Amino acid sequence: MFPLQSATPLVDAISNLLGWGTNPPVPYEFIAGFLGAFLIANVLLVYSALAGPWAKRKITASFTDRIAVNRVGPFGLLIIVADAVRLLSKELIIPEGADRPAYDLAPLILPFSALLGFAVIPMGSGIHLADPEIGLAYVFAVASIASLGLVMGGYASNNKYSMIGALRAVAMNLAYEIPLVITGASVVIFAGSLRLSEIVAVQAEPLITLGGFTIPAWFAFVNPFAFALFMAANLAEIGRNPFDIPEAPNEIVAGYQTEYGSVYFVLFYLGEFLHIFLGGAIIATIFLGGPAGPILPGFIWFTIKIWSVFLFTQWMRSAVPRLRPDQFLEVGWKGMLVLAFANLILTAVIVGVIA
Amino acid sequence: MSLQQPREVGVTADGEVDYDALEALLGDKVVDREEHINAEGFVIRPDEVQAVLTTLKEEAGFDYLSLLTAQEYEDRYESIYHLKKYDDPTQELSVIVPSPRDEPWNESAEPVFRTAEWHEREAYDLVGIDYRGNPDLRRILLPETWQGHPLARDYDQDRPQVVTLREHANPIREDHRHPDEADTMFLNIGPHHPATHGVMHIKTTLDGEEVVDVDPDIGYLHRCEEQMCEHSNYRYQIMPYPDRWDYASAGLLNEWAYARVAEDLADIEVPDYAQVIRTMGGELSRIAAHLLWVGTFALDVTGDFSATFMYAIRDREIVQNILEDLTGQRLMFNYLRLGGVAWDLPEPRDEFFSKIRDYLDDVPYRLDEYHSLMTSNEVFQVRTVDTGVLPTETAKDYGATGPVARASDIDIDLRRDDPYGYYENLDWEVVTEDGCDNYARVLVRLGEIEQSARIIEQCVELLEDWPEGEREIQANVPRTIKPPYDAEIYRGVEGAKGELGIYIRSDGTQQPARFKIRSPAFVNLSALPEMAEGDLIPDLIASLGSLDVILGEVDR
After folding, report:
1. CA-CA to A184 of 20 to 30 Å: which in A318, B122, B163, B195?
2. At B536, is the secondary structure helix, strand, or coil?
3. DSSP reduced 3-state for B111
4. CA torsion, points B415, B418, B422, B425, in degrees to nearest 10?
5. Are strands B93-100 and B40-43 parallel, antiparallel or unpaired?
6. Closest by alpha carbon to B297, among A51, A110, A322?
């Protein structure tokens, strides 16, 4: 029996709860792991259900001086149910000449690549499915699988707008993924580990004490420049203004998802929100101390942090114009990439001198 | 040869057009002379169009082809080129080109004025004159399968027009224009597309993201407005139609275009009080129209969750409410009448005025908000500066007017240059920018909102103090209007999109024999290929947005 490569706090907890003890036999461990994954996936589906049909509308409405949904249920909350029924009951129209298996698989890849990422995110209060040594690298890796979904969807739709959207998505991914990962690497240099639980633990150290208040060594405070850079790159990762280029509804209709409707559209939509939350989770974990925070339980803090990032993306969407693809590439390759490397080298030098 | 000297040809000392000198300039090319109400007309032979227009453009300074009217008489076809000068639009000249009924043709003016291409296409489409030398003489408003020319006299209205798709050429062209050319992609933008602001189809050829060829396909909203007006009487029936041309809140300005031309034709004096109300209402319309543009342009550049859009709609709503108080309507105002307006200001007047003043007080603050969301945003700047460039000379060649022309550094505004209404007596400025790009067009329109607010404020002051006994809203106008036989007139007003002009020829009855609309959006749109080719798709969308086309006015 090989021991698993990583610690699995949530699985162990479930296993203990069911009376199987730590490190139960494989079938039991599998069941416990499945239950843990089920729990985390459902938490995220609830977030997305809140965000998609309701919170996003409400937030955008506040930014744009409107009221938004307020008729169904308290604060319009039941619109979530109504919209779910509406979206799921729509006819699924598949365009002629669509490249079938690819067309059907693309909407699955997008949400599941994001869900996979959450497997290693420490969400506080013991909700942490797995904690492999290569945690951060794993998150970036699975999050990038989403690009494959976009390209598949855009290519398989047999629509020129979709194709343009897919090509834009590829160009964009190449341009932003590198600065994103490089900036993430500067955090790794500080923390000395890719393991997410350790990155969180390092940030719990006090940075400075001001008049009785201890400011923790969150990397957002330690290296605000890297934080800003990462936030910007993250907007590109999740495709929101000023970088919502692959969708660009006024230019290329809806980009890669032009031909998707009904359940497939829901999956795309769900995937987008999951990616926003995954982006928020990465930011919370490597820059904002993970689930750490005073008084409230860790999970609540974690939720607040990722929703703050969500709020930020919606704010950008309402306020900032969209860049042109060529301008974005310029920002990505000539701006962010250079800054990311500068940040990495500087961090390495500073850490090398101090340590 | 000095550049200044030729401009003086054909102008009298006091700035009027000297038609005799012009006739002398053209020599025996002028076959005959006609008297139109707005200008004199020179009759020329169909094969001398280019020579005459070139001479007039280069030596007499007529650098603005405002409109081409084509019509069919019992014995002949006729094309009228309405020429003006950008420096002084009151200097007008009509060049009349008759051609035989059995084979209507004349030389195309396109080599002299680019704008003639679309005008001639429309004339060919609806009237059926063959403009030889036009590089692209296809139907423009009607489908290419249409049979016959509907404004021609012998047009058979009962002829079936259904042409099945099988008989119709495949509308989707090959992606590769030439087999040996680099890979290009043909993309249909529209007729149903989020960015076309109406039903419009842009046939685009792309090289990667770069736009190499743009061919706007219009006419989806063609409602035979000209013909409907020709079947309506001057006094009552035509006025509601202009509301339906530029329906994006500019209704009062459109009505004014008809009011002005018909009043000049029938020699009706409008009381000052009514003129002030018209001026105020017209400027409110302009603000509403420009605000809608601000919002939709933000959509084009920012995306569909833009806060700017809702802010603009919110502000426009206030203006719409004021217009509703004034006219009783929100969309199709139908408020102007020949000789005045339909009714006096709403009672209680104080409340109405304070409503307007409340809005005007807010305008500077609101404009600041738009400037901080749009013009001073750096991302917005990199998106709009130096994109959709329309250089001054090109803009003139395309006959651009309105904010599009003024953003290309052409100082033309009919409110000032060809005064009507009450504008002469008010203190305001014409906003121009020399950027020639999308950014300049934003600045011009935001500036015009400010100027319109100034005008409205002065109108409100005038109306408040207007003596109670002299509140005359309507001149004494006969119940039936029958202008003299064969009177011809072309008049334009400054609509929200540019020079909105109407040509009317009367035949002595209560209905016009020819009613031709010069749509500024139609003319401005013809410059789109010039602006967009070589840019990327997002710039094409932004440039299209920046032209502020309302398809109801383009297609009429």
Report:
1. A318
2. strand
3. coil
4. 90
5. parallel
6. A322
Tell me: the pLDDT tens digits for B57-102?
888 888 898 989 998 888 889 899 998 888 888 888 888 898 888 8
Q: What is the CA radius of gyration of chain B?
A: 23
Identify the CA nearest to B261 among candidates B33, B62, B495.
B495
Closest CA relative to residue B433, chosen from B397, B394, B390: B390
B505 DSSP β-pair partners: B488, B514
pLDDT of residue B175 exceeding 70: no
Question: Which tokens hold the place of B520?
Answer: 């500024």
Q: Indicate whether A177 belongs to any domain.
A: yes
Residue A100: partners with Cβ closer than 8 Å, 6 or more residues away: A94, A156
Chain B residues 499-538 with a CB less than 8 Å from chain A: 536-538
Report which secondary-structure segment, H or E, holds B500.
Answer: strand B499-507
Query: Is residue A324, in this structure, part of any structural domain at all?
Result: yes
The single residue listed with the structure tokens 């209709």 is A253
Candidate from B185, B187, B305 with C-beta closest to A318: B305
- Radius of gyration, CA atoms only, chain A: 21
Q: What is the pLDDT of residues A163-188, one digit of tens each?
A: 888 888 888 888 888 888 899 888 88
Distance CA A249, CA B193 (A): 9
Chain A residue with CA closest to B192: the answer is: A253
Contact A322 B538 (CB under 8 A): yes
Query: Per-residue DSSP letters for A36-58?
Result: HHHHHHHHHHHHHHHIIIIIHHH
For B545: left if phi > 0, alpha if psi spans -120 to 50, otherwise beta; the answer is alpha
Cβ pair B556, B517 in contact under 8 A? yes
CA B177 to centroid of chain Cα atoms: 34
Q: CA–CA distance from B356 to each of B321, B323, B351, B352, B465 (Å)? A: 10, 10, 9, 6, 15
pLDDT at B165: 53
What is the C-alpha separation between A164 and A176, in angstroms, rounded?
Answer: 18
Is residue A77 included in any domain, yes or no? no
**Tokens standing for residue B429:** 């400025």
pLDDT in tens, A84-94: 898 889 888 88
Residue among B185, B379, B538 whose CB faces A320 most closely: B379
B289 to B320, B496, B497: CA distances (angstroms): 10, 7, 9
Contact A244 B303 (CB under 8 A): yes
User: B76 has which bridge partners?
Assistant: B100
Residues of chain B with Cβ-Cβ distance to A252 below 8 Å are 537
Q: Could you tell me the domains of chain B?
A: 5-131 (3.30.460.80), 248-515 (1.10.645.10)
Enclosing domain of residue A315? 93-354
Tell me the CA end-to-end span of chain A in Å, nearest whole number.
39
| DSSP 8-state symbol, B345 | P
Our CA angle for B113, B117, B121, nearest 5°, is 150
Model ipTM value: 0.81
pTM, full prediction: 0.86
Domain count, chain A: 1
Closest CA to B325 of B292, B347, B350: B347
Residues A18 and B151: their CA atoms lie apart, in Å, by 86
Is the minimum CB–CB distance between B544 and chain A shorter than 8 Å?
no
8-state DSSP, A119: G
Residue A158: alpha-carbon gap to chain centroid: 29
Q: Is A43 within a domain?
A: no
Residues in chain A: 355
Q: A326 CB near a chain B CB, below 8 Å?
A: yes
